[in-house]
Design a protein that fits this description.
- With 160 residues, this protein is of the alpha/beta class.
- Strands 3-4-6-5 form a four-stranded mixed β-sheet.
- It is globular and about 40 Å long.
- The two termini are 19 Å apart.
């Protein structure tokens, strides 16, 4: 697993803790074409002025058959102080994420609300990684049937 950040001091700090993190921008990633089987990007795209550049870069670094998961605030987050963070450029909607996925020329994509994961951190510290993963898979399946999701965030999943 490799992390990417534009802030040199953060890269330096986390590198000293043993994380594999490199300096770079999602707009111009310092990786070869097809270098990754998967990309995970959480709460970044709402800060980007040109998200189409970033989605194209993600498509470029994904290997054929690769998968990417992006989590972004939804338009509902506007009611919860979205623009209180001056670095936020835009919230996303299902149609805008679908447009973004099409811009990246992915073979398929899915947009849905983020499952509500409250309590996961507590379970992790008490029960461990395996139990948390089992809990999340089970809870996700049941909650989706009941339409219980976190409507403040959307998930875009794309496949190359």
């Amino acid at each position: 697993m490799i992390g990417l950040d534009i802030e040199p001091s953060l890269v330096d700090h986390y590198s000293r803790t043993g994380l594999n993190i490199v300096l770079g921008s999602v707009d111009e990633m310092p990786f070869d074409d097809g270098a990754f089987e998967a990309v995970f990007c959480c709460w970044l795209f709402e800060h980007l002025w040109e998200p189409e550049k970033a989605i194209s870069e993600i498509a470029r670094v994904l290997a054929p058959g690769g998968y990417a998961c992006l989590i972004v605030p939804s338009q509902k987050s506007l009611l919860k102080g979205f623009y209180d963070d001056y670095t936020h450029v835009r919230p996303f909607t299902r149609p805008s994420l679908a447009q973004l996925a099409k811009q990246g020329n992915f073979s398929s994509f899915r947009v849905e609300h983020l499952f509500w994961t409250r309590g996961g951190g507590r379970l992790f510290t008490r029960l461990g990684e395996r139990a948390l993963y089992s809990y999340l898979r089970f809870s996700d399946r049941i909650a989706r049937r009941l339409h219980v999701v976190n409507r403040n965030n959307l998930v875009l999943e794309v496949w190359k």
